[in-house]
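My convention is simple: the sequence line spells out the residues, with the fold written below as integer tokens. I include a record here:
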Amino acid sequence: MSNPASDSNRSLPASVLALLVVLGAGFFWAYWTTLADMAHRWWGDAQYSHGFLVPVFAAAVLWLRRGKLAIDRLQPNWWGLALLAAGVGLRLGAAWYDLEWFDAMSSMPTLAGFAVLLGGWAALVWCWPAIAFLFFMMPLPYAVETALAFPLRRLATTTSTYALQTVGFAALDEGTDIYLNDQRLQVAPACSGMGMLMIFFALSFAIAILIKRPLLDKILIVASAFPIAIASNITRIFVTAILFEVSTKEVAHKVFHDWAGFLMMPVGLGILWLELKFLDHLFTMTESRRISPLAFNVADTGAPKPRSRRRGKR
């Protein structure tokens, strides 16, 4: 039978809940134009279509971590105003210099400030994974996308051509084009793998939040998102090039543009699963025990067990 007193200690005071509702309404009122612009980008750009799922997953993280919220340790902390000031300052600077990405990023210190202001550092310790995960719903700055797009396209083109040559196809690459007999496969900017890179970073970060593993394992999982995304994109181009040879152009285009993104997701998740299994075999979890220097196994050594020096003393 549950204890009413303990149940009451697990619930937030009504005043805190009311203030949370007020601050939440103020946040959405202040950021509704920014959120609307991001939603428009999610809808129109396939590279960021996962953005709709990021807030949902962030809310799920808060729900799954609800048992770690120490209600009795929550105390308002005025340091939250400093974080709020940082968020407001970042947003004002973004508006002054017309930097949309910094405008979106200002929401993260703002939310962190709300958490500290309402519940102190204990609240921030509880909710920081969800706040950090919101980073993946924000489209990258145009300058960053432009700087990364061509090297990713060139890497995908060169590696896919080498893979085709390895299996016996007469393939050559020039710039971001692959010449396969009389076919020309163009690795367009939309095929750079940027979308897969963002998705797999979000997936690996989500897995790192949810799994119960050592910190080193979580760091390796997040860091592996880059090679997994690159390998998935190369696989997509490689399979499409083969379909151009053994099938029709219509089927190849259908697979490349419509199905490949969905098909590569299970491939990436499978690679992450194999990585976790590999880490299980690479690092063996042992339980440390304190062993006395005089305590050894008689069966192993064949020697008599030493007597305690204090035996018989009172």
Summary: The chain has two domains: 11-138, 143-282. Residues 11-138 form one domain. The chain is about 70% helix and 5% strand. The beta strands are 171-174, 177-180, 183-186.
